């Protein structure tokens, strides 16, 4: 790499800090940026700076927004009686892409993980309980992951919400569509059996 000028080395070094980008990929990206028209490089750098300057946390759901209240929370067509609890903004985006949920969201911004020192006060549980007390929420959908931490977080929330007059549901987990039973791990198969439904 020493044969590159310092400005290219600096770009390669910065690009390789991105997740999933190794040194070779960073080098290819740097060369692509170098060959691209100046306007493309300006647009790229401008969009990165705009992201850093404008993006904030929605004051209602704690998702990503460029306004105080995000478009989902401010949409009057959304079902304000349904609240889907997810771990991160990316989880909300994944559910939104399906088009299957028409309610609103609450992003915990993490999961309970005592081993990592993450307790109930470190994620947005207090804010969730406050929303449920203040808003006319009828159903809370727990959509945390099926990892140990995700399941522990869901169990903790069930305990917290027992005294609240809301319907509690948990997203189903189990065999993926197109999955072959003989290749499915035992825990996933167990979950599929436990969450089976009448047809």
Brief overview:
44% of the residues lie in helices and 13% in strands.
Q: What Rg, in angstroms, do the CA atoms define?
A: 22 Å
- The level of helicity is 40-55%
- Please state roughly what percent of the residues sit in beta strands, choosing from under 5%, 5-15%, 15-25%, 25-35%, 35-45% or over 45%: 5-15%
**Looking at the structure, what is the overall shape?**
globular
CATH architecture descriptor name of the largest domain:
3-Layer(aba) Sandwich
How many helices? The count is 8
What's the β-strand tally? Answer: 6
Strand order in the sheet with the most strands: 4-3-5-6
Q: What series of H and E elements makes up the topology?
A: HHHEEHEHEHEHEH
First and last CA, distance: 62 Å
- Outline the low-pLDDT stretches: none
Biggest beta sheet summary: 4 strands, parallel
**What is the total number of structural domains?**
2
Structure, described:
The protein has 199 residues and is of the alpha/beta class. The chain has 2 domains: 6-54, RecR Domain 1 (Helicase, Ruva Protein, domain 3, Orthogonal Bundle); 64-194, Dna Topoisomerase Vi A Subunit, Chain: A, domain 2 (3-Layer(aba) Sandwich). Helix content is 44%, strand content 13%. It contains 8 helices and 6 strands, in the order H-H-H-E-E-H-E-H-E-H-E-H-E-H. The protein has helices at 6-15, 23-35, 38-54, 71-74, 89-98, 125-134, 148-161, 186-194, and strands at residues 56-57, 64-65, 79-86, 103-107, 139-142, 167-170. The strands form 2 sheets. A 4-stranded parallel beta sheet has the order 4-3-5-6. Helix 1 packs across helix 2.
